[in-house]
Specification:
Blueprint lengths: L2 H8 L8 E2 L2 E2 L4 H15 L5 H15 L8 H15 L5 H13 L7
Length: 111
């Protein structure tokens, strides 16, 4: 089992991934993409899973105890953005540009 596999399995409490009948639940395609990007970047050794999970815990704590569970992947995405920026994988303006392109539908890297 890889570090990320263990890390995903070890996420507990509010940081635990949404599941239904033991399967991961994504309510929108972007949620699955954010999940996949986070896993792929860790697998490619772009950051450590512990760095990502700390960021995720911070994001969840900021949401507070009454944070909306339906917004879980918004916090996941914020954690991902944080480790990507911290690691110098993208500059803030590059991240803003790519996010805008996806929102506007001018960028779609789907296969």
């Amino acid at each position: 089992m890889s570090e990320v596999d263990r890390g995903i399995a070890d996420l507990r409490g509010p940081a635990a991934l949404p599941r239904r009948n033991g399967e991961l639940v994504f309510n929108s395609p972007w949620e699955g993409r954010a999940f996949g990007i986070a896993v792929a970047l860790e697998t490619d050794h772009r950051y450590t899973w512990s760095a990502f999970s700390r960021r995720l815990a911070e994001q969840i704590a900021e949401a507070g105890p009454d944070g909306d569970p339906a917004r879980y992947y918004e916090r996941w995405l914020a954690a991902l953005e944080g480790v990507v920026l911290d690691g110098g994988l993208l500059e803030p303006d590059e991240l803003d540009t790519r996010a805008r392109e996806y929102r506007e539908g001018t960028r779609d890297d789907a296969f």
